[in-house]
Amino acid sequence: MRVDLFDFDLPSERIALRPAQPRDAARMLVVRGQAMDDRVVRDLPADLRPGDCLVFNDTRVIPAQLEGRRGDARIGATLHKRIDLRRWQAFVRNAKRVRDGDRIDFGAGVTAIAEGRDDDGGMTLFFEGDEPVELLLERAGTMPLPPYIAGKRPADAQDRSDYQTMFAKQDGAVAAPTAALHFTPGLMERLASAGILTETLTLHVGAGTFLPVKADDTGDHRMHAEWGQISPEAAARLNAVKAAGGRIIAVGTTSLRLLESACGEDGIIEPFVDETRIFITPGYRFRAIDGLMTNFHLPRSTLFMLVSALMGLETMQAAYAHAIAEGYRFYSYGDASLLLPEG
Fold first, then answer.
1. What global pTM score does this model have?
2. I need a surface site. Which of 212, 308, 311, 325 has the fewest CB within 10 A?
3. Are residues 128 and 238 located together in one domain of the fold?
4. Is 188 within 8 Å of 42 (Cβ atoms)?
């Protein structure tokens, strides 16, 4: 499909620079089939059925944004995928000033050696020393805010908590699974009281999620790889939900992509430990999920293509036009949508 079919105009003032407080006070556009309702996230229990299951991503965002120097050159690095205990793939700013074997000093006693370019357009960095890389990043790194926020303000101490979900346990993401930012302990209690089930999986979100689609046709776009895991126990519980007639509602496109990667043609969700490059565009047949809760996404992005595959391109164009007209807040710190294709 032509990428320009997924374009739309978004006023810059619609981009949220801070999350709603409290988190479940964010607005939520509910799209059932082609019908739309303006709600609030705390209304979610009333919009689901007893026996439905919300699936959360328990990845934890690490402070993966680094600023340093190689000689007199300023070098920026955003880590996006772990290779081993001391090596990470990174997108590097001013990379033309870095050669293989160069040492980059990120301050606070943190240095890394450039070890070559990778297929995703980045560079491999080897972090020197004996301390775990996670400790080095806590000392020298900052939260890797999305470019559309970082371009308007620097990351600060508040982002250390704001850009982390209440489910975050497994270190490794360099972008938050932002749909889950809306959840609070109080909301989780009300969901449980309403008979709504929950499950967790892990997908370490990479910085590649923010890369623009440069191709003119979706068939020419190469999706970034992300590592994920669904335990055998979680897969069994999710299949039991489906067998009992409950709906699987992915909280975030990351959960959705991993569930669909792990699901066979027979609709059975299998245990999964691997990387996925799944790219979902209109025409895709969903096998694992029955709905999606997600934020509002960038024009021409793979994520807007995904929601258009779930709901239909015309429906999502109408939903986004409504959201813009009604003042919904967009992107990572913005408002939510609940997308239910069967109404």
1. 0.93
2. 325
3. no
4. no
Q: Measuring CA to CA, which residue among 300, 310, 314 is closest to residue 6?
A: 300
Shared domain for 57 and 85, answered yes or no, is no
The answer to whether residue 171 is domain-embedded is yes
Q: Are strands 291-295 and 336-340 parallel, antiparallel or unpaired?
A: antiparallel
Q: Report d(CA 98, CA 113) in Å as an integer.
A: 10
Helix-then-strand count for the chain, H and E: 9, 17
Q: What are phi and psi of 285, to 5 degrees?
A: -100, 115
Domain that holds residue 113: 65-141
| pLDDT single digits (tens) 79-138 | 988 889 999 999 999 999 999 999 999 999 999 999 988 766 689 999 999 999 999 999
Bond into 299 cis (ω within 30): no
Q: CA-CA distance, 310 to 321, in Å (whole number)?
A: 17
Q: What are phi and psi of 341, to 5 degrees?
A: -65, -30
CATH of the domain at 125: 2.40.10.240
